[in-house]
Design a protein that fits this description.
This protein is an alpha/beta fold. It has a single domain, classed as Vaccinia Virus protein VP39 (Rossmann fold). Helix content is 42%, strand content 24%. Strand 1, helix 4 and strand 2 form a beta-alpha-beta unit. Helix 9 runs antiparallel to helix 11.
Amino acid sequence: MTEDQDHREAATSFGAVAAEYARARPGYPDELFDALERLWGRGLKGARVLDVGAGTGIATRLLAARGADVVAVEPSAGMAAQFLASSPTLPLVRGTGDDLPFHDRSADLVGYAQAFHWTRPERSVPEAIRVLRPGGALATWWNVHDETVPWVRARARRLAAALPTRYHGYRGIGAHVDDFARAGLAVGRTVLHWERRITVEHALTDLTSRSYLASIGPEERAPVLAAERAALLAEFPDGTVVEPYALDLTVAVLPE
């Protein structure tokens, strides 16, 4: 299998684990949206926002709670079904960032929560610029497991050894900043740190929703999850995992 085929397979794997994704993936702290507004130079309230690669709607709901006029954009049928089950009052459009189904200059913000790496920047960046109004912004963000913490770093090494052709960590995050700058956008970036406390089983369900495990069969997945359960219980014998994140945010603003 080529790297491109592997990437496509991973990108389409989420529909089968949409329920696990909705149940176990982390949300985002309020500080994320405060930082987004600061880097953009305007507020989310009343802004027309496209949440591209919306998945089950984790970021969509938070953007709506900030007062944004938000539309979710999601290509996966399984993820879209989960989104509609949990957020039936929020609008959702089937589509991708490489071919946004929206008119020119129809949005104030195009946002990607955990999703921009599934696009082709040579297509998705011009598409975002096309649909944005003057002064609008393209924002990308990821909750990245903080590998400065020893147990997180050890887990990454185990997963890389167990899944050498599938687990690549967060390789490539940040590379798109140059694409934004070359397109004439004013780029700002920050990293926020936060943590959540979850059970061991919650942490394992989160892992199950990751593309590197979602894209393989249950027989291959089982020993990886068993090893991770043992490692987590050794690290957190009371069963409560303190999971640290480095939340990477980039905001690229169009000229007025």
